[in-house]
Amino acid sequence: MKWSELSIHTTQEAVEPISNIFHEAGASGVVIEDPFDLFKERESKYGEIYQLSPDDYPKEGVIVKAYLPVTSCLGETVDAIKEAINGLLIYDIDLGHNDISLTEVNEEEWATAWKKYYKPVKVSQKITITPTWEEYEPISTDECIIELDPGMAFGTGTHPTTILCIQALEKKVNEDDFIIDVGTGTGILSIAAAKLGAKRVEALDLDEVAVQSAKINVKLNKVHDVVQVRQNNLLENITEQADIIVANILAEVIVRFIEDAHTILKPNGTFITSGIIQGKKQEVKEALQEHGFQIEETLQMDDWVAFIAKKNS
User: Per CATH, the architecture of 2-115 is what?
Assistant: First the structure.
């Protein structure tokens, strides 16, 4: 099969929404080339990415690449992607250069191009994420392994917003907790919650492709007896009260359902939010406080922020 590599030169702020647009357009794999990765300190004992070449990265900004099958509908798909990306401007998202290019690659080059970027990564004290094609042996008895195939849907588990959410879940999840994961994507946060001891998790996503991908990953990680994945728009029609709600999505979307989250959470329940760029931090913080949440902790990584907020009883 022939594949087209669609590449966009953008900003770190736009990486997640653009990756999500690629995923929704049917991309089989997304590659993120962020020069910041060249300067991250990494402990090789955890098997993280190493020996990165500066030649593979832009000098500034971020390159996001998607791989689309070459079909008769490719032109329409690319036009729809461009329109959706330009539509992010209404959310005040900086698109940077916003330069888009399209090149053809064969299947072998496609597989090598994106799989080489993903190795096992320890993202918190207990959670290690490993791609399905990598062999990995736990280095401690309490280590939890999440197997993930980044080609299934958007989300490799190594983006700062995902890491922040997992670290927050590790702090807050207790046995017997009922957790709702809003905008589950690949299901990684739901899987993490289950492996950290949650009794029951509902993984919700509006996108049907994400729902199917999350179901596959949930079964792959043998937590399908704990995690239920289904299609749903944010928290609409949810009535059962939860101990924790976690959402790793755009700040503009988070503020739209904070009131619903407050209603659905049990007294003293926890709302974990990420996907928040520094420029949106104050907006989300104020919205949480206005709707009856107390900020317990603010977590930060690179230019991203996550809040652990407690519902005032």
Answer: 2-Layer Sandwich (3.30)
Residues of the chain with CATH 3.40.50.150: 121-311
Residues of the chain with CATH 3.30.70.2170: 2-115
Instruction: Give the three-state DSSP class for 45.
Output: helix
121-311, CATH topology level: Rossmann fold (3.40.50)
CB distance 186 to 158 below 8 Å: no
Digits of tens for pLDDT over the chain (313 positions)?
A: 677 889 999 998 888 889 888 877 877 667 888 766 544 554 443 344 444 455 556 677 889 988 887 777 888 888 889 999 999 998 888 999 999 998 887 766 655 655 666 677 888 889 988 887 777 887 888 889 988 765 544 445 567 888 899 999 999 999 999 999 999 988 999 999 999 999 999 999 988 878 988 999 999 999 999 999 999 999 999 999 999 999 998 888 999 999 999 999 999 999 999 989 888 899 999 999 999 999 999 999 878 899 999 998 7
Which of 236, 293, 244 is CA-nearest to residue 272? 244
3-state secondary structure of 180: strand
Q: Which residue has the tokens 């996108």?
A: 207
